[in-house]
Structure formats: C-alpha cells, structure tokens
Design a protein that fits this description.
Largest sheet: 5 strands, parallel
Radius of gyration: 14 Å
Shape: globular
Order of helices and strands: EHHEHEHEEH
Structural class: alpha/beta
Mean pLDDT: 95
Distance between the termini: 13 Å
Low-confidence stretches: none
Helix content: 25-40%
Number of helices: 5
Number of strands: 5
C-alpha cells in the first residue's frame, strides 16, 4: 500500500506560524509521526509540500498512478482551488482531507472546503493528530474496498 501526503501553502512554517492556531509541531515532525505509523502498518508514504497551486496540481498528476490514496491538507487552497479538486478527480484515487485547526470554527471564508465532497472523510481540529487519524481512516478505507 502506498499513500501520498500532500501539504499546501505555508505549512512549511509550522512550529513558528501562529502557534495558538496551528501548534508548535513542525511539518517535519508531523512527517516523522506519519512515517512511523506507516512503517508499523507496512505502508509506504510519499510526502510533498508546496506553496504553489500549479506545483500541487502537477504533483497530483505525477504521483496519482503510483499511489493508492491521498491525505490532503491543501491549507488555504482548500477553500478556493478547483484546479486541485479537478486533478484529484482526474486521478480517481480516494482521499482524506486533513486540517490541523478546526476550519469550521474559523473565519467564515475558511469554513468551506471545495475538496470535502470528493473526500472519503475529513479530519479537522486535532492538531498534528489529524494526520494520524487521516492516515488510519484512509488505510481502513483502502483495506475494506
């Protein structure tokens, strides 16, 4: 089993960016948590972060054929990017949307996800644990297909 974890803009600043909202755990630390969970479950992980929407779309297109599913924290692109949604639809792999903060308890503009309706699930508001919950959920979904 192979899962891709895709991270959007400004997530490379985790640990220093608005710690009251996003916590103090860095993206590298979250990656290590997920990779550890993957080793335990016998799953391979591809990890990607970009601040560019076009790069995000290209990544989905390039790795879509070699992964079984996606964990996607599209960050600010969650609320706006039809291009990312279209790329995910085009590759046709299941995805779980993950967010560190509870997007539904944030500003109005952050309460809508253009990806949620194509996701098998959405995990939001559990800090770095959101990634582990998303991993477990996606793995269970893939194993039960």
């Amino acid at each position: 089993m192979r899962i891709a974890v895709l991270n959007g803009p400004n997530l490379n600043l985790l640990g220093q960016r608005e710690p009251d909202i996003y916590g103090t755990t860095t993206l590298e630390e979250i990656e290590q948590l997920v990779r550890h969970r993957a080793v335990v479950s016998g799953t391979e992980v591809e990890w990607f972060q970009t601040n560019g929407e076009g790069e995000f779309v290209t990544c989905i297109q390039q790795i879509g054929a070699r992964v079984d599913g996606f964990i996607v924290n599209a960050a600010a692109f969650t609320h706006t990017s039809l291009a990312i949604k279209d790329a995910l639809l085009a590759v046709g792999k299941p995805l779980v949307e993950a967010h560190l903060s509870n997007i539904f308890a944030r500003e109005e503009m952050r309460r809508h996800s253009v990806l949620a309706d194509i996701a098998v699930g959405v995990v939001t508001g559990f800090g770095s644990t959101s990634y582990l919950l998303a991993f477990d959920g996606l793995l269970a979904h893939l194993e039960n297909r």
